[in-house]
Amino acid sequence: xxxxxxxxxxxxxxxxxxxxxxxxxxxxxxxxxxxxxxxxxxxxxxxxxxxxxxxxxxxxxxxxxxxxxxxxxxxxxxxxxxxxxxxxxxxxxxxxxxxxxxxxxxxxxxxxxxxxxxxxxxxxxxxxxxxxxxxxxxxxxxxxxxxxxxxxxxxxxxxxxxxxxxxxxxxxxxxxxxxxxxxxxxxxxxxxxxxxxxxxxxxxxxxxxxxxxxxxxxxxxxxxxxxxxxxxxxxxxxxxxxxxxxxxxxxxxxxxxxxxxxxxxxx
Length: 267
Hints:
- The protein is mainly alpha-helical.
- It has helices at about 1-20, 25-50, 60-80, 85-95, 95-100, 105-115, 120-140, 140-170, 170-175, 185-190, 200-210, 215-225, 240-260, and strands at about 55, 55-60.
């Protein structure tokens, strides 16, 4: 365990040094990320402000949903970005993954470190600004505030697990499976808004097939003291950390299975 921690810290330092060497590139990338997510949310907020409510949710309540999932997804993309299936499939097909296997450092740690990009923290910064600007307006209970980090942590583990699963699939397919973007970037967008704003079929799929609703919507319903027109018991609001952890542990099993089946592409 001590060796894993030492190797992990060393790999992170290498990535930070790379960012320090190209400061202008880092700053441009960070500002671009901040500008993109700021404009994305700003345009939506202007529209919602015009209509005042979205499926019974006020702007400040939607901001709460949006900011929590963006913090979680932004941190997950920063930490687990090396498992993004698109660059990872290129790594496998080109034969460069063989080089990683030959290094005397854990493969998972190498992939984690290879994807660290400080520019991705731009969306996290914007999300934190949104969250802390609307918290005084929500009048959350102390219990709700204490539960909030667990909700964000559950979503972080969920997205991290999905990134790992999407890259592990590459061991069997070799090619990048673009439909898996639905489970990362697509679910991220879906979870940013109330589930009551979607059609019944979509709600059913992302509640009982892919349990995205339990990760952000139901915890927010409980923390904001809102009633749920979908009729599920309030206890489901506390499933988020367990679903996130379960998804992450499952992803590690699939990742290890993929590693054991890996064969060089021969390129």
